[in-house]
Amino acid sequence: MSRYWSAVVRGLKPYVPGEQPKMANLVKLNTNENPYGPSPKVMEAVRAEVGDSLRLYPDPASDKLRDAIASNYGVQSNQVFVGNGSDEVLAHIFLALLKHDAPILFPDVTYSFYPVYCGLYDIEYREIPLTDSFEIRVDDYFVPNGGIIFPNPNAPTARALGLSEIERLLEKNTDSVVVIDEAYIDFGGESAIGLVAKYPQLLVVHTLSKSRSLAGLRVGYAIGQPELIEALVRVKDSFNSYPLDRFAQAGAVAAMQDVEYFDETRRKVMATRDRLSAELASQGFEVLPSAANFVFARHPQKDAAELAAALRECSIIVRHFRKPARIDQFLRITVGTDEQCDALISALKNLLP
Questions:
Q1: Could you report the per-residue pLDDT of 293-317, keeping only the tens digit for each?
Q2: Start-to-end Cα distance in the chain
Q3: Can you give the CATH number for the domain in which 209 is found?
């Protein structure tokens, strides 16, 4: 700890991202990346940006991208905010919309970046326990709060909350913002974007990292009513006026417009996910119902940390969370290609009792 650090830095407990190993011939199933590459139209759009225009700043408002997103969801461009990955979008949300006197609410098992943002911005929070079956129970959120946020489907559990339950939450919670983090929604859940027009306190967050195979470009966005979007813009322009470079904007526009490729690849992931879930269940795993591009599973006779280590010896990497304790026997397994999942299943047959 350096004497030059600020008091804020001394107290931070940073988010730990999924490992990006540099091993050869690796079956990488630990960070929920899409196993299929970006749309060919994305590659064309990115290559077209190489030229003299790189000496100029990109569009600070990302107008073409916001227009493409708005067109895709049937909203107005002033209802769309874009940022450098959904993590940056979320960071701006915590500062712009969730920093109030009352504590914000999120699940006790959820995206582990949420408490990190609270530590960074000095936001009080309260963790709401999931049910014994790892589901979000909206009635538990009917208490005074400074805001509510959770992923849907939740991460790392992969369980989805129905749209009717989200609307019930919105009807009861009108005095603070409700943020639905839909990073994995395109793999089987019901998006809440259609509720934005009815509920001014609703903000929905998406990423292009998962269903559109663009984790390397870092593009995320939020959709809500203009009042909420304006707050995010005010924070962005107090932090970084140019969060998305020319490559990211061009590639993201192409990705949003190539609906056919998007549908094709996400359906392939969903089909493989369902087959993987069935294969794991046949080997004795308890597999939570998944509406995401990953599964969350535990084996009653094999310690999760030991199993993850054994798979690593087979050049297969999955994600194991040591905290919180109630999920320390689960593995989060990204849905890869059929061939990658076959390799995992084959390895498990040799490792399990």
A1: 999 999 999 999 999 999 999 999 9
A2: 45
A3: 3.40.640.10
